[in-house]
Write a structure and sequence with these properties.
Elements lengths: L3 E4 L3 E7 L2 E8 L1 H9 L5 E8 L4 H9 L7 E4 L4 E6 L8 E6 L19 E4 L4 H10 L6 E5 L2 H6 L1 H8 L4 E5 H8 L4 H9 L5 E5 L5 E5 L2 E5 L13 H16 L4 H18 L13 H15 L7
Parallel strand pairs: 1-4, 1-8, 2-6, 4-5, 8-9, 9-10, 10-11
Antiparallel strand pairs: 2-3, 6-7, 11-12, 12-13
Helix pairs in contact: 1-8, 3-5, 6-7, 8-9, 9-10
Bound molecules: adenosine monophosphate.
The site of adenosine monophosphate (AMP) has 18 residues, from strand 2, helix 1 and helix 8.
Length: about 300
């Protein structure tokens, strides 16, 4: 099965929701992404952590089969993010972002890593995203990217530069509006597609996901869950299911893309059921398959028997 490379943050997250809180739990865009994608295909994780990063977190990734040979342990402190959510779990409020070892992380990709055919540029400094893309020996079959308000506000020009070179962008609805400078989501989505990516996937939290590709919109609801504890990482977990499935099929046609949006939604629906990666660490392939079928049932209008 074709391999997938991800560059992004590996973090220690402190998160509070109305239902509980965690301090310095395992997080990071590349962490959630790689863990989720590993249910579908082989994943290589490119990132850096500090010397303070707990070893058991590395073991967790290794045990899932994530290839961490390109995860560099640098002198200094691990990236830290803290955020909180109100009863509307759709919007994270960032309280603090400490880049720490990411502030001057300059990875050099090995020959082997430069040839990985699927690439995900997870939420991190767009300068780093572009650097990794330009180090690839040949253009990967698919390049997808995710970002957030921190970079949209702080490094807009760099972000526009890398956006112009990717095939797919995954972004949440508030950030899509901010990036496009356009409150209407349909217009914002079209405006982002005009920045470069042929496919735009907008993550809408409890309202599901919207894909714009080839001038066509496709929508999937979110799975109706009774208990949502922590939405942190839902977007990256979605992207892990989405790109992981595409890589596993080695296809990026319209029908496969639609199925990939459902697999992304399936993975995100599990991630929010507990804090950090806790639910994902208990997840099985069978549960993924069952929820995929349940997603089809959610919107089927005519029953098979008529
Ligand atoms: P999401 O999937 O959008 O909920 O992403 C949550 C993850 O993004 C958290 O685990 C954070 O560690 C990570 N994160 C937050 N801010 C940043 C940032 N500015 N750059 C990279 N990663 C971040």
């Amino acid at each position: 099965m074709p391999e997938l490379l991800v560059v992004g943050s590996v973090a220690l997250d402190s998160v509070a929701t109305p239902f509980g809180a965690v301090r310095e739990a395992l997080g990071g865009s590349a962490t959630f992404f790689s863990y989720s994608a590993s249910f579908f295909t082989g994943v290589r994780l490119l990132a850096t952590v500090g010397e303070d990063f707990p070893h058991e977190h590395l073991d967790l990734l290794k045990d899932r089969g994530v290839n961490i040979a390109s995860l560099q342990i640098s002198q200094g402190r691990t990236f830290r993010w803290s955020g909180e959510y109100g009863y509307d779990l759709n919007e994270a409020k960032t309280l603090d972002t400490q880049l720490n070892v990411f502030a001057d992380f300059k990875p050099i990709l090995t020959e082997e890593v430069r040839r990985v055919p699927y690439l995900f540029l997870a939420n991190i400094d767009p300068v780093l995203q572009l650097d990794v893309l330009h180090q690839m020996a040949e253009r990967p079959r698919l390049v997808a990217l995710d970002t957030m308000n921190f970079w949209i506000r702080g490094k807009r020009d760099d972000l526009l530069r890398v956006l112009a070179e990717v095939d797919v962008v995954t972004i949440n609805d508030g950030e899509a509006r901010e990036l496009a400078g356009e409150p209407n989501l349909v217009r914002a989505t079209r405006a982002i597609a005009a920045m470069g990516p042929k496919t735009v996937v907008v993550k809408r939290g409890e309202y599901g996901a919207l894909m714009f590709s080839g001038n066509t919109f496709f929508m999937v609801p979110a799975y109706p869950l009774e208990s949502v504890y922590d939405p942190t990482g839902a977007g990256d977990t979605f992207a892990g299911g989405f790109v992981g499935y595409l890589a596993s099929m080695d296809r990026v046609d319209a029908a496969t893309m639609r199925r990939a949006v459902v697999y992304g939604s399936v993975m995100a629906s599990f991630a929010v059921e507990d804090f950090s990666l806790n639910r994902l660490t208990r997840l099985t392939r069978d549960e993924i398959g069952q929820r995929y079928v349940a997603f089809g049932d959610l919107t089927r209008v005519e029953s098979a028997s008529g």
